[in-house]
Amino acid sequence: MHTFDTTRLLRRTAIGAALAAVTLFAACSDFLDPKPNDVLAPENFYKSATDAVAAVNGVYEQTKWAHWLSFWYMSDIATDDIYASPNFGSDGHHFDEYTFNATEGTLAGPWGDSYTTINRANAVLDHVPGIQMDSTLKARVLGEARYLRALAYFNLVRFYGDVPLIEHEVNSLQGLDVSRAPKDQVYALIVSDLQTAAANLPAAYSGADLGRVTSGAAQALLAKVYLQQKNWNSAAQTAGTIISSGRYALNPVWKDNFSVEKEFINPESIWEINYDHVLDPGAGSVVTLFSLPSNYPGGDSYGLMGLVPSLVRLYAPGDQRGNHGTFMAPPYTDKLNRTVSWTVPNGPAFDKYLDENSDQNMTKRGWVQQDNNWIISRFADVLLIYAEAVNEGGTAGPMSAVQALDSVRHRAGLPSVGVSGQGALRDSIRVERRREFVLEGQRWFDLQRYGTLDAAMRAKQAEMGYAVIGVPSQYFPIPQSELDINPNLTQNPGW
């Protein structure tokens, strides 16, 4: 039996250690008695366009780790969608049952990794403007850094509320005792970064640059930022601009969103974090291993989590996202004609991240060996952002809220929504988001925005037979490890 505790798997340190180092991108960070010309430091690194691109590539690399494991413990396991099986370690059960506290090691991952990402982005923004290089490429590199910094701060402010706001590179132990800034200030920087990025990034890439953030990625994240702030007009307008551009479309087959072969190049993909164990050994995805039922043939499969029964019941029989989509119900016959049953989890297991057309996924699965990307933005999200914003009072643009919602429903194989009135449509949009985005880093933030996190967790706790305790706060606790090293930090109420 496999049991996993994330505190044994975290690969990044907290903010103090993360920001104490000069966050450049050499493979080796430890030098014994180095000669001056051996040290990769700002004064002898930021000299050329090649250096600028290498620097922003380092921000991408850290963004990968910020979403690798702990992120979806918090964004998905700690919701009403997922339960921890007996195979899961104690940390998984703590998030499932909402019984963690500030000392939970998993909480330190998104905090420390996000601030390492921010410091790397700040280094780019501080040093690249002084490089003599092609102006278009320089604007692109700076736009990429702004997008990645904004994404990191967006995760932080949603998870923790007020957080330290650091806008320039930190490369010494001085200046690390930073107080928490009001979340409105953090959001102001996020919006400014994304607006600038959208204006300076290209619409698309090709060749070796495929997978970098685009102007559409910046717009899509900006629409989500506005939505989380309940700035309905700006969310509707920004999402409407993306819809009107004609640049993106829904995949006719919903499962193609999770096809390894079609990563980056399917029409619904706006931006996704690349996991490629060949290009970056030891840095592949693990979500497939965690979510598949125990002993699924073809390699590692841990059976750590299952779908809460009330979620499974939300899928109609003809819904593409149901059986053979989001989940698999035993006995399950896959494309290799293998019929599989399991006991862990008890009932339907996740199918979302198993690409049955990928030989690696089906026959060679191993720890950090999967190439399944983590999606940050896809067009279905833009449509549902637009639908929610318009229904809540934002000005309609290219279509009505119902038309945007029905686009997602029709692709899934469902009929038109057939409801009227703001309240009924609100409920329908919320249910559609839940069906569409299970285990995609969306549900916890949605519940937070709706103001229903406590009610949803109480319902789950009752359904699963846990102690019904609800949630103590609309935010996660500041990691105790951070409070211990920064006397200027304060804890969120309730923790």
User: What percent of the residues sit in helical stretches (DSSP H or I)?
Assistant: 40-55%
Major beta sheet, strand line-up: 1-3
β-strand percent reads: under 5%
Would you identify the regions where 5 or more consecutive residues have pLDDT less than 50? Answer: 1-39
CATH class of the domain at 1-179 and 468-480: Mainly Alpha
Do you know the CATH architecture of the domain at 1-179 and 468-480? Answer: Alpha Horseshoe
| Rg over CA atoms | 22 Å
Write down the secondary-structure element order. HHHHEHHHHHHEHEHEEEEHEHHHHHH
CATH topology-level fold name of the domain at 1-179 and 468-480: Serine Threonine Protein Phosphatase 5, Tetratricopeptide repeat
* Largest sheet geometry: 2 strands, antiparallel
Number of helices: 19
* Overall mean confidence score, pLDDT: 92
